[in-house]
Amino acid sequence: MIRISLLLFLLIAISKPSIGQSKNVASELSDAIINRYQPTINAMTAKGWDHSNSVILHAMEKIYLQNKNPKYLKYIKDFVDSYVDDKGLITDLKTELDGIHPGILCLFLYEETGELKYKAAATQLKEYLFDTSLFNKTPEGGYWHKNNDHYNDVMTIDGVYMANPFLLKYGILFNDKTCIEFAVDQTLLIAS
User: Fold this and answer.
1) Distance (Å) of CA 21 to CA 30, 63, 69
2) In angstroms, how far is CA 41 from the centroid of its own chain?
3) Is a pLDDT exceeding 60 seen at residue 6?
4) Confidence of residue 151 (pLDDT cuts 50, 70, 90)
5) What is the C-alpha to C-alpha distance for residues 192 and 178, in angstroms, rounded to an integer?
6) DSSP β-bridge partners for residue 84
């Protein structure tokens, strides 16, 4: 996890070149990740459809939006496509919030490519998260970070980050007020 956090920090911290800097270090780091970990980022983490992969790719998405380098889009797409079939069905779903974060990549790919399978995958994740039989909640209604006894009635800020940016973006893209309200409620709940 330290390795992933360091990579994420570096990608975000250096995504814009400093004054006088001739190279974009964030692009160089992205290139190094792509060259080193093939066919997808999962070659580094072996975590599957999980935030361990999507936080790095979400940072790479930000770099892609700056430079439009098609290899970054392809690398993100290759990861998502290894879990999302042609109809938008996601394999390897987990009943923990860490498995919701990759949905942010589906929304990004839908915006960039217009392919309906990414919208379908995002909708599947939304419905999966809202399935009251799958995810445990605290008495106040906050999602447990993970569905196991170690996190019994434990809501974490980390868990809020895994789900709420996805829900908020989904709500904005598809005018789904329920998603927006839910993300706001969960954020206010953890803040209290």
Assistant:
1) 17, 16, 19
2) 13
3) no
4) confident
5) 21
6) 90
- Taking residue 154's Cβ as centre, other Cβ atoms within 10 Å add up to 15
Task: Name every residue whose Cβ is closer than 8 Å to that of residue 144 and which is 6 or more positions away in sequence.
Answer: 135, 136, 137, 138, 151, 152, 153, 154, 155, 159
Q: Give the residue among 109, 101, 95, 6 at the shortest CA–CA distance from 51.
A: 101
Q: Which residue has the tokens 């839908």?
A: 110
For 52, phi then psi, to 5°, come to -55, -30
> Please, are residues 83 and 48 in contact by the beta-carbon 8 Å criterion?
yes
The residue that leads in pLDDT, 5 or 181, is 181
Q: What is the DSSP letter of 157?
A: H
Write b or e for each residue in 7-32: b if 16 or more Cβ atoms lie within 10 A of its Cβ, otherwise e.
beeebeebbeeeeeeeebbbbebbbe
pLDDT digit string, tens, across residues 28-69: 999 999 999 999 999 999 999 999 999 999 999 999 999 999
125-133, Cβ contacts within 8 angstroms, sequence gap of 24 or more: 125/90, 125/93, 125/100, 125/166, 126/166, 126/167, 126/170, 126/176, 126/179, 128/93, 128/100, 129/100, 129/163, 129/167, 130/182
Q: Which two tokens stand for residue 100?
A: 């919701």
Beta-carbon count within 10 A of 71 CB = 13
